[in-house]
Design a protein that fits this description.
Layout: H1 2-5, H2 20-29, H3 38-48, H4 60-67
């Protein structure tokens, strides 16, 4: 894949018992936080920072909505 698209790929491994990160995230957020993606997102960012300064991420749907023109929805009774 890297050769095909002429990109640099790096492989990093994280431990499955990464429970120390819970304390780190609790200090960073300083409030109750129940997002199951917080731990993997933090680690991906931390590992990416070893190789790059800026990284873009996000769900394609969020990107599409953010950069597309506003959508008007007609909720008048005639369209129900």
């Amino acid at each position: 894949m890297a050769d095909r698209y002429r990109t640099n790929h790096h492989v990093e491994t994280v431990q499955s018992d990464d429970f120390d990160l819970i304390d780190t995230l609790a200090r960073l957020y300083d409030e109750p936080y129940a997002d199951s993606s917080a731990m993997p997102t933090y680690r991906v960012c931390q590992l990416a920072r070893k190789h790059v300064t800026v990284a873009l991420s996000g769900a394609p749907r969020c990107t599409f909505i953010r950069f597309s023109p506003p959508i008007s929805i007609d909720r008048s009774p005639r369209n129900r």
